[in-house]
Structure formats: structure tokens, C-alpha cells
């Protein structure tokens, strides 16, 4: 969903640039090859080995964030509208993609106990239950699950599962465990339990990394409205 309120969009692409590493800063790379224009949603990348006069490559996205952006700014612009739409009855997914060391874990997790530093997932937990606490005349049931895809296998806290398809649900994971969660703390507890069971490998850039798998935290919400009418919708964080 567009954060500018102009129209609904199927997919929004948002880019967040991390600060230069110590090695990059020492080599004076980060600022010399990358230019971020948040107002225009544009990133310019310069080739440090380019011939004189070679232009920079420009890329335009729905939103871009420089390395000075805060967790709250990223959530409010890129994720809050999507979670709001989920709470109105639409399904939604937040998918973080990037190489090892680009800041995916920081953006998605951050420091859950710190309001200023918590990432997309814990912010969404608080967002969902803040909405529920303000709602009147409706009852909510929130269930959560945590799965990983590792070496083409789907696992639920270490247990192998199968991918199925049905006319009612479309593609779904058979026998995936769903846990009733009553507040953000219970959702975070499930996330912590799942982290203990996930597969960890190594890459050239990170000796302890989960880059070889896909982690997906799912939230399923059921609303019982006036007259007993039920609504179901899902939100996924990858």
C-alpha cells in the first residue's frame, strides 16, 4: 500500500542503505560510490574504477533510506501502512532481501526491548495489539507461527513439513503449528524459541549466518464482529 495515500499497490520496493563499515570508511568508499536522494526515492551508484566521464547508475524505488534513517522512520513509511491494511482485512507480507552484512537483521529485528531501536517485526507486534486495545465491539484471536525454509525443506521449529494447496487457502504449509499469542511479549517469546532451532551456516562474509535459509514469522488474525460475522487475514514477515 502506498504510504502517500494516492493508490493501493500490490508491491512496494523500499531500499535502506547501511553505514559504511570500518574497512569501507578507511578506504573512503561508502560516501564516494553511493548517493541517496530520499525525496526522489533515488539511489546513484558510482563505479570507483570507472573511466573519466562515465555516468553513475541511477535506480528509483518507492522509498529509499540513507544510513542516518531511524528504525521508526523505516517502519512508519514502509511497514505501518501495510499492517494497517492487514488490520482492515487484507493479507500482507514484508520481505527483507540482501547480502550478508547489509543490515537485514537490524532492520527486521533490531533491539526488541528498546523502543527507538526495535525493528520491523517487534514494531508490528506492538502495532497490532495497540490497534486491538483501541477496538470496541469486536473480539480478536491472534495466532502466530514461525517456519524456516532450509535446503528446500520447510521446517517448523526443526520439524519437517510439507507444502500443500487447496481451493480455500491456496498454497499453505500442512501441520504448521499455530500458537495463540495474547500480547507482543508472547509473540517475541515464540520468535526467540524459533531462533534457537533455526539452521545456521557460514558464508564468506559472515562465519555465523542464516543466509542459507528463509525465516518466516506468520501472524493470523480472526475478528469476530457484531452479529457474529468472522473475518480472517494474515501477515507474514520474512
From TrEMBL:
Record-level Gene Ontology MF annotations: ATP binding; microtubule binding; microtubule motor activity
Residues in Kinesin motor domain copies: 10-238
GO BP term (any one): mitotic cell cycle
Binding site for ATP: 98-105
InterPro entries, A to Z: Kinesin-like_fam, Kinesin_motor_dom, Kinesin_motor_dom_sf, P-loop_NTPase
One Gene Ontology cellular component: microtubule
Gene3D superfamilies documented for this protein: Kinesin motor domain (3.40.850.10)
Subcellular location as annotated: Cytoplasm, Cytoskeleton
Pfam family, one: Kinesin
Keywords, comma-separated and alphabetical: ATP-binding, Coiled coil, Cytoplasm, Cytoskeleton, Microtubule, Motor protein, Nucleotide-binding
Keyword Coiled coil set for record: yes
Similarity annotation: Belongs to the TRAFAC class myosin-kinesin ATPase superfamily. Kinesin family.
Name of the protein this chain belongs to: Kinesin motor domain-containing protein
